[in-house]
Specification:
Chain lengths: 180, 591
């Protein structure tokens, strides 16, 4: 095993890692995304997925959805660290609310001929993926769903002739009538 | 000309900056001119409300502003140019962020149309300083400038204080726009720090305190930051409860060192009694401190049997390093007041006589012991004499970083808050001298002493020139052991005494150096000379460099080897070669 590199990590953390989805409402001002990303890299947190876009242009609000992993203590730190940034309005742990929907969109390019094409279309149908581009030797599928579903679809496409994937990252929203 | 010119709120960006400083009650700023701030310097030239202190290096301006802020409770203000001016501020900004010091740094920037062009003295100032400020702004429109400046002062001074930076391109400084005085709506609506503590949590805390058998109060820099009232309340709480109290490096002075419940500083070089009390306590009240690694030692062995109450204004400090049982978020002065009120109404002083007997036994170990010598000045002895000879005077102490800093914390007794300026979190060698400049600017008639090391002091020695220019009679008290003492100590303890690059081969003659700067040089070589020389230093009303030649190989004890627990301290009388070798075995990789 490696020697601990510093006293900060002398404690062996036995807590298992958890994956959490955080929704962060921020003032859409220059540099705000850099601040958030800098926080993650500077403090050694993980980013599994990051999605950001302005959601209320009149109020200059952007919504950042971050999927991150860490021990419960680290996840709590991440939330506090985000929350204390000046342009951050709110941080909601969508995983803790247990009432959230997560979606991701992916475009998946597959190349193949003959039987492979048929198989690709059949799988696409099963996953409710749409064909958004086609040539005689390729398809581009558009698929929406949670991360697991998209991962599974991509895994199935690999032996058929997966060329490349473009994913949006996770967007999340709570169920019910209330906003965050 | 037009009607506009009659509106007193129509002015250039440069004029707005000076006006905002005046509106925020700023009387002194520290800075260094350059191309991208010339319009602001032109405005400074034409007024007399704000005094500008010209430093010799921007880092000096930053630390001077920190010293000014720490000793007054007001924000320190820095004005520097673009490019190197801004990058030289990175160290003080980081230092202020770590130690929660309110700083407002204004930087010049190349004109907006040149930003991104690799222009002369251009750098991405907001990008570079983003991780080392509490917040920063690049102002592209002169009409945003007033709001941003007011917001900057608010963010720097409210909640957990910290450094902020406002980057102002030169064309914005020249442009004319509308200024407005500070108003409530200038505050970022997404920023609202919590001040008042949760009442239910306060009740829980009081219940724990009232039933404690082995309590301890552990206070930190947050008490100082909260203002003098917080220190008063802390003292009252200690009085009302009869609990023992220890403090972090940053919190010294909140409770007086002469107080009967005082255990001394805790942590890596804290006293044995403070660390043992922390380790064995059953209830710990942490006020405005953050369980830093220099305090906790090994986290999984930190005070294992205690219920912990943590008062902090920054929610991210809670459960960061140590899990606590009763977190209370808010301003420590405010919360201490509430705790006192509830305690007085509902609880009685717990009987902790046995606990004090135990503490007395730990105290009897005399962990700050050192062997005096008649031929060589011991650094501990030098600090003790400095303390004795300045007792009763209006004294402020700053330090550099290293052994001398720890000895100062151990042997100089602080009776009041705001009297002790040191770089705790970042550990910046070169902090103390410019910080002393800043303290002396704020307190022109006080005795301001930088307790320094021969290595640290050379990092910012150029600021002696600033002290001479502004007739600031700062005293630089150098414990000169010709080594980077703490580095050498660690090399001895952890790296087989291979003293790699920790010896200062070519030290300057500090007395001659003092004279070259136009200040006074004093040297003490023998213990017998010490008192006379210190008295001479105090009597001189000019800047002094005091070259105190001390034992070269003295180590700073007691010490918790990094990564060990509080009850695994190494005491001075045990610190023979074998014991140190065992204590530090396997610790090489630690910080």
């Amino acid at each position: 095993m490696n020697q601990p590199a510093s006293a900060y990590f002398i404690e062996e953390r036995h807590d298992p890692n958890e994956t959490h989805t955080l929704s962060v409402l921020v003032q859409n001002e220059p540099g705000v995304l850099a601040r958030v990303i800098g926080l993650f890299s500077g403090r050694g947190y993980n980013i599994e997925s990051l999605t950001v876009s302005e959601t209320e242009s009149q109020k200059h609000l952007s919504r950042i959805t971050i999927v991150t992993t860490g021990t419960p203590m680290v996840i709590e730190q991440i939330k506090h660290q985000l929350d204390r940034m000046i342009p951050v309005y709110r941080v909601v742990d969508m995983t803790l609310t247990k009432r959230s929907i997560e979606r991701e969109l992916a475009m998946v390019k597959v190349r193949g001929q003959g039987e492979h094409r048929v198989e690709a279309l059949r799988l696409a149908d099963a996953f409710r993926a749409r064909v958004i581009d086609a040539t005689t030797e390729s398809f581009v599928f558009e698929i929406t769903g949670n991360t697991d579903k998209i991962n599974q679809f991509i895994d199935l496409m690999r032996p058929i002739g997966l060329v490349e994937v473009s994913r949006t990252g996770v967007a999340a929203i709570g169920r019910g009538p209330e906003g965050m | 000309m037009t009607e506009k010119s009659h509106d007193p709120n129509q002015m250039t960006g440069a004029a707005m900056i000076v006006r905002a400083l005046i509106d925020h009650g700023v009387t002194d700023i520290f800075g260094y001119p350059g191309g991208a701030v010339l319009p602001i310097y032109d405005e400074i030239f034409q007024q007399s409300d704000v005094q500008h202190i010209l430093v010799r290096h921007e880092q000096g301006a930053g630390h001077a502003a920190e010293g000014y802020a720490r000793s007054t409770g007001k924000p320190g203000v820095v004005l520097v140019t673009s490019g190197p001016g801004a990058t030289n501020m990175v160290t003080p900004l980081t230092d202020a962020l770590m130690d929660s010091i309110p700083l407002v740094c204004i930087t010049g920037q190349v004109p907006t149309h040149l930003i991104g062009n690799d222009a002369f003295q251009e750098c991405d100032t907001v990008g570079i300083t983003r991780p080392c400020t509490k917040h920063n702004w690049l102002v592209r429109d002169v009409n945003d400038l007033a709001k941003v400046l007011h917001e900057a002062f608010y963010v720097a001074t409210s909640g957990r204080p910290g450094p902020v930076l406002v980057d102002v391109p030169k064309d914005v400084q020249f442009a004319t726009g509308t200024y407005h005085p500070p108003r409530k709506s200038d505050v970022h609506i997404s920023y609202s720090p919590r001040v008042k503590g949760d009442a239910a949590q306060i009740r829980k805390a009081v219940a724990l305190l009232a039933n404690a058998k082995r309590p301890v109060i552990y206070s930190g820099g947050g008490v100082i930051n909260s203002g003098p009232e917080a220190s008063k309340l802390l003292r009252e709480l200690v009085e009302v409860t009869g609990f023992p109290i220890t403090s972090t490096l940053m919190g010294l002075g909140a409770y007086p060192a002469s107080g009967k419940n005082w255990l001394g500083m805790l942590g890596m070089h804290g006293t044995y009694e403070a660390n043992m009390t922390m380790h064995d306590c059953d209830v710990m009240l942490c006020v405005g401190a953050r369980f830093d690694d220099r305090i906790t030692g090994r986290v999984d062995a930190f005070s294992p049997g205690s219920k912990k109450i943590h008062i902090d204004i920054d929610p991210s400090s809670i459960n960061k390093n140590i899990r606590v049982d009763v977190p209370i978020i808010g301003d420590c002065g405010n919360i201490l007041g509430d705790i006192l009120q509830v305690f007085k109404a509902e609880a009685r002083k717990p009987d902790i006589k046995q606990w004090w007997q135990q503490i007395a036994q730990w105290r009897a170990r005399n962990s700050l012991f050192y062997r005096k010598n008649n031929d060589i000045i011991l650094p501990q002895h030098a600090i003790q004499r400095l303390f004795e000879l300045t007792r009763g005077k209006d004294t402020y102490i700053t330090t550099e970083v290293g052994q001398h800093q720890m000895w100062a914390a151990q042997f100089f007794g602080f009776e009041e808050p705001h009297r002790w300026m040191t770089s705790g979190g970042l550990g910046t060698m070169g902090y103390g001298l410019p910080a002393a400049v800043g303290v002396q600017v704020a307190h022109p008639d006080s005795l301001v002493i930088d307790i320094a090391g021969d290595a640290s002091v050379q990092m910012t020695i150029q600021e002696m020139s600033t002290a001479v220019q502004y007739e600031l009679p700062i005293k630089i008290f150098i414990l000169n052991n010709q080594y980077m003492g703490m580095v050498r100590q660690w090399q001895q303890l952890l790296h087989g005494n291979r003293l790699s690059h920790s010896y200062s081969e070519a030290l300057p003659d500090f007395v001659k150096l003092a004279e070259a700067y136009g200040c006074v040089g004093i040297q003490a070589l023998k213990p017998a000379d010490l008192d006379g020389a210190i008295k001479e230093m105090i009597a001189v009303k000019r800047p002094v460099i005091f070259d105190c030649r001390v034992a070269a190989l003295e180590n700073c004890f007691p010490m918790i080897p990094s990564g060990k627990a509080h009850n695994e301290m190494l005491l001075p009388e045990q610190a023979n070669d074998e014991a140190t070798a065992t204590a530090f075995a396997g610790g090489k990789a630690l910080v």
